[in-house]
Amino acid sequence: MSFKDNRNILTSVASYALWNSIVAIIPFLMLPVLTRSLNGNEYGMIAVFTLVAAVISPIVGVSVAGAVSVRYFEQERFDLASYVSSCLLILFSSTIALTLLLILIGPFLPWPSELNTSLILIACVVSASQVIVQIQLVLLQSAGKPRQYGLLRFFQATIDAGLTLVFVVSMQFSWEGRIGATCLSSMATAVVCLILLKQSGMLKLRGILKYAGDAVRFGAPLVLHSLGGTLIANGDKLLIAGLLSLTDLGIYAVPAQVCMVANLLLDSVFKALHPWIIENCLIPERRLEVVRVIYTTMLMLFIGCIIIFVILWSIFPYYVGDEFVTGRELLLPLLIASVIRCAYYSTAIFINVAGKNEHLAFNTLVSGLISVLLSIILISEYGVVGAAMGVVVGELISFILNFRSSKILYPMPWGLK
Predict the structure, then answer these.
(1) Quick check: 9 and 144 in contact, CB under 8 A?
(2) Smallest Cα–Cα separation from 122: which of 217, 66, 49?
(3) Considering only CA atoms, which of 333, 352, 368 is closest in space to residue 409?
(4) What confidence score (pLDDT) does residue 189 get?
(5) How much is the pLDDT for 3?
(6) Distance CA 181, CA 37 (A)
(7) How confident is the model at residue 178 (pLDDT cuts 50, 70, 90)?
(8) Largest interatomic CA distance in the chain
(9) According to the model, what pLDDT value does residue 132 have?
(10) Neighbouring C-beta atoms of residue 124, cutoff 10 Å
(11) Looking at residue 7, what is its pLDDT?
(12) Residue 384: how many CA atoms within 13 Å on its side-chain side?
């Protein structure tokens, strides 16, 4: 790798890390306010809503953002503006269809009693808005524009935080106020993204159906993949709500949110590397360099995880309210899961490039189901700590299965030869 390549990668990583740190610090600063304004049961209700939105998100979008991220680097074969427009058409169509379906069957589904059909429909709106935001973020990331990427995320985070302060603290709307802030900030950011897409020429009616089939074929397997990932990342919360209580879920959700700061920092590295990895793995002569960069990155992330754990462990008792302080013991397993998830990203990229997303779907669903079944056993034995342990195992199995698939589908010189 040339000095220029090294400098560009380091600059990109630093930019993403800086912006992710700025974005992460906003909800991080909000946390002590929320933990002193909401009790464990109310915080658990917010976690349940977030889980429902996470399940709905890949369904309403058919995971089209993943298709855009790959097709960006194949513009000699695809008209990118038509492709993005086709993806948005798929998003709007699937959102309307899912909304109508939930109106019909929502009252018969086993939601928690507080989570009525209206809140489920709000989750649909939030999820659809986030897919629009994700498409714009993917375009900025692929184009190597970390500053614009960071500004967009900062815009959403500040609106979300401001509305939360108004609704939860000033107006004392409890968990409903937090959900309302999430919905309004997501919608506002989605509108901004549509304006940006229009200004950049990414929206056009001509040929809007041209790539709909390709986007669905690419994204449909990723729906199952995303649902499997949701089982791994959020199945623990669902099981805690079902097997323990919403209060236990609230206590669990607080350290999970604290660890989101670490997730964003670690994820920023792969956000920066993702376009470079895709571009260079397509060149056989540069694949050895790609592997070396991935291995070096993973070592850096492991060291960073240790440093972050020491810091979080030290400040946690003084940071959250007394009701949530017992969640400190969950920090280490949740951080380990974050590092393993980054390792998984380094393998999933090559499955994406090979166009074999059905393997991602199968691997992630299998690991997700194993994680859930194991978590049921661990939760009954160790409580909320068992749920965190189940997440670690699920992430590890997902990484192993996807690493095996990537070696078969898109061979890389992982042995550095």
Answers:
(1) no
(2) 49
(3) 352
(4) 97
(5) 40
(6) 15
(7) very high
(8) 62
(9) 94
(10) 22
(11) 56
(12) 24
225: which 2 tokens? 């993949």
Over residues 236-256, mean pLDDT: 82
What tokens were used for 194?
Answer: 């549509």
